[in-house]
Design a protein that fits this description.
This protein has about 180 residues and is mainly beta. The protein is about 5% helix and about 50% strand. The chain is elongated and about 60 Å long. It holds the Pfam family ASF1_hist_chap.
């Protein structure tokens, strides 16, 4: 059973200037007292062709928490336009991803499609040769999040699988690791 359940994420604004800050309110439940930190990471996908253009907009850890419902506001700077490789990547479909880890294992990920565009009809019809970033708007599709929940080792006991590269894949050796401290 999951010890942490993300129950709601609400963006302050789903349409804003491209380089304006991103703000979201996150609500989650802690099912029982936690022994370890929770790690949060907000990522902007700069290009669908390579993760080397991904931008970490915010990353932080929360100390171990007591059981109960928690809520906080995550605020981050907007993406850095200079780190996006091309105009096509800027104006193509992109995403913002929130990843959450416990005991260094990702257990929750939610992605939102992002569409960057000019809102002024004259700029849409007559695309300027140079990007006018101060007139580009970021539109986050908050109505269709892509949520992934992963089963992890909440208790800190893990079964690891070892395969001897000299043997065929039919031979396995299991080892139980307890308490990583």
């Amino acid at each position: 059973m999951a010890l942490i359940n993300i129950t709601n994420i609400v963006f302050d604004s789903d349409t804003a200037l491209f380089n304006s800050p991103i703000q979201m309110q996150i609500t989650f439940e802690v099912m029982r007292q936690l022994d370890e930190e929770i790690e949060w990471k907000l990522i902007y996908i700069g290009s669908p062709t390579s993760d080397k253009y991904d931008q970490v907009l915010e990353q932080f850890s929360m100390p171990p928490l007591q059981q109960g419902t928690m809520q906080f506001t995550l605020m981050s700077s907007g993406p850095n336009f200079e780190l996006i490789p091309s105009k096509d990547d800027l104006f193509g479909a992109s995403a913002i991803i929130l990843s959450v880890k416990y005991r260094k294992q990702e257990f929750f990920r939610v992605g939102y499609y992002v569409y960057n565009t000019y809102l002024e009809p004259e700029l849409i019809e007559n695309d300027p040769p140079q990007v006018l970033i101060e007139r580009v708007y970021r539109q986050i599709n908050t109505q269709a999040p892509r949520v992934t929940r992963m089963n992890i080792d909440w208790e800190g006991q893990m079964v690891q699988l070892y395969v001897n590269p000299q043997q065929n894949n039919q031979s396995f050796m299991f080892r139980i690791i307890t308490n990583f401290q």
